[in-house]
Design brief:
alpha+beta, six-stranded antiparallel sheet, 21% helix, globular
């Protein structure tokens, strides 16, 4: 299993606000796609009021200090791809028992990786990234850009900037070939 070590962990910690850039993300097409992805996650019970629960584990920034991670596949339009959903809980000091007792009170965000069809962005493994607030709206960076799409591509910080340290699959949590994975 891959873990956060040395520079990779530090890169992820530093990846919270995006570096100023002409970002290849946050377009109207990215927002529309992210909306479809959220609807699919609701359908699967991965987000929303009746979301399934898992045993939270200790996390680190830029995600939550307690996390739940789910691996699935999702069909968006005519493509079925790997879906990784991470629920990010806080604040500092929150325990797994507190999260299990009242997940809605502690959920800070939901971060997602979805592997789109080949040709979306082969250079980055065709991963589409999104960061949602608990109500399903997309989080935004300081430049008011929606965090959906190729977040952090070509930047010093952001999803891709961090996850490229886990190439070729871009996943820190497992080396397994997940269902739907290219």
């Amino acid at each position: 299993m891959k873990g956060f070590i040395g520079k990779l962990g530090l890169a992820c910690v530093l990846a919270t606000p995006l570096a100023a850039q002409d970002a290849p993300f946050g377009t109207s097409q990215d927002i529309e796609y992210a909306d479809k992805l959220w609807a699919e996650m609701q359908e699967q019970g991965l987000v929303g009021e009746d979301a399934i629960l898992a045993l939270p584990y200790e996390g680190r920034e830029p995600h939550g200090l307690m996390l739940e991670t789910f691996y699935s596949t999702a069909q968006i339009a005519d493509h079925t791809g790997t879906l990784v959903v991470k629920r990010n809980y806080g604040p500092e000091g929150v325990t797994g028992d507190e999260v299990l007792s009242d997940p809605a009170a502690h959920l800070g965000s939901v971060t997602v990786m979805y592997q789109r069809a080949p040709g979306y962005d082969d250079e980055t493994g065709n991963w589409f990234y999104a960061k949602y607030l608990p109500d399903g709206t997309l989080d935004r960076n300081p430049k008011d850009m929606a965090l959906a799409g190729l977040v952090g591509k070509g930047a010093d910080a952001g999803c891709i900037a961090c996850h490229q340290g886990a190439a070729p699959d871009y996943l820190f949590t497992t080396d397994a070939k997940l269902p739907g994975m290219q």
